[in-house]
Amino acid sequence: MSSEPDEVQALCDRIAACLPRAVKLSAIALRSAGVKYANSRDLIAGDGASYYGGRWNPPGVKAIYASLDPETAVKEAYQEFVDYGFTAQQIRPRVFAGVRLNVKRLLDLTDAGIRRRLGFRLDELTGEDWRGIQSGGEQSWTQVIGRGALLAGFEGLLVPSARNRHGMNVVIFPDNLASTSTANLMAKDDLPPHPSDWPT
Q1: How many domains does the chain have?
Q2: pLDDT tens across 136-158, in order?
Q3: Whole-number Å distance between alpha carbons of 171 and 157
């Protein structure tokens, strides 16, 4: 017997029923991180999202967030400055890196038919205040969707950007990648070293 609330379990069941409609993705995605975490060990580990949670994953679930075009990547990377009104003087350097993706089982939330099956409109997914809900001790619906997709066996999500109306993001669950799927950093030798290797 499930310990989930009925509406959460019902959503997870609808997500699982979408597995036969999973989509493949072979693309170069753009990942961004502050200099401290822009190294080959941390960039695609998914640990940061696991610690703090994200729109599509609750804390405790590893997730790699990336964008499918440069404009969306920049808007997503600097969302904190938009949200909290930071000044230009507070901007810190960030590193953008390419991730070559070849994955086979994504839940495609850019597909209106999939959204209808799950019972959500586009604006409900992109406009949900997941941070406020999480800070109140709950999981947002978008986080439940991510967790449900992980449990159903999806390798990740293809999602509309909340920052760029025409942009798309991809969220990869590294612990769910099939042996034949890959998420590989490009030009790894050009990335900054891990902080443990910084000169003292």
Answers
A1: 1
A2: 999 999 999 999 999 999 999 99
A3: 5
Specify burial of residue 23 (Cβ count, 10 A radius: 0-12, 13-18, 19+): middle
Q: Which residue from 11, 13, 15 is spatially nearest to 154, judged by alpha carbons?
A: 15
Q: How far apart (Å, rounded) are the C-alpha atoms in residues 17 and 142?
A: 17
Is pLDDT of 55 > 80?
yes
193 found inside a domain: no
| Torsion angle of the four alpha carbons 66, 175, 147, 63, in this order, in degrees rounded to the nearest 10 | -30
Residue with more model confidence, 179 or 194 = 179
**Can you give the residue range of the structural domain that contains 116?**
6-185
> Looking at the predicted structure, is the pLDDT value of residue 121 above 70?
yes
Domain of residue 156, CATH code:
3.90.175
Residues 58 and 174: their CA atoms lie apart, in Å, by: 15
Is 43 part of a structural domain of the chain?
yes
Q: Count helices and strands (H / E) in the chain.
A: 8, 6
Closest CA to 117 of 24, 23, 25, 12: 12
- Pick the closest to residue 47 from 182, 194, 186, 197 (CA basis): 194
What is the pTM (predicted TM-score) of this model? 0.92
